[in-house]
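Hi R.,

Here's the chain you asked about this morning:
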Amino acid sequence: MDKALEIGKVSATGSFQLFIGVATSTIIMAVGTIILARLMTPEEYGLYSVALIPSYMMILFREWGVNSAITKYTATLRAQNKPEDTCEIIKTGILFETATGITLTLISILLSSFIAATVFNRPESASLIAITSITILAGAILTASQSSFIGFERMELNALTLICQAIIKSVASPLLVFVGYRALGAVLGYTISAIAAALIGLAALYLIILKNLKIKNPEKTSLSETLKKMLHYGIPLSISSILGGFLAQFYA
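And here is the predicted structure, written out as tokens:
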């Protein structure tokens, strides 16, 4: 009974912390977006919005359920007191997300001119699309870190990354637009916030969680076997999210 009560208290606390993080970051982002829209002309804001679409679409194909697997297996292995296996799951997940992020980022950069000219009929947005492509990789690293935080029930770290990203974006984008960079400034602020959040998430994951894991006898587990197990769990979960995200972008 005491154990069930303790689990309930931890879950409730974590949910509240995550709610605070999401709510706070949403409010900050809303304020930042309003300020940004007032500083830009409709044409500039439209160009900025167009530049974000390709990276949003690429992100849908980055998610193969590995982040869900990170959360699931870290929570399970923690309960079983297996820090070595927990560390292996996180390492494999981050490596996979990084590799996928790099691949899709390069594809997006290489296709930026084609997408800008042919798909959107806005050739001037090519450089902006190329810049926002970096957020595909940054988002991959950040999401893997956040999934690990959830698995360790450290929701406050998840909230921290959300709030930091919102603050940086809401300050950097309007500031760069104000000093004269216009649509480029908005895109740079958006990209900088994604990179900063990824670095903060990765640093927090290492310094607060991984560094404190008591790994006594590290075992050399096959990376491919670990990844195979994670994909076997995650891919069925990812199919619906990929389809839902694609349809949301298509009908938006």
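One quick note: The first helix runs from residue 2 to 39.

Cheers,
M.
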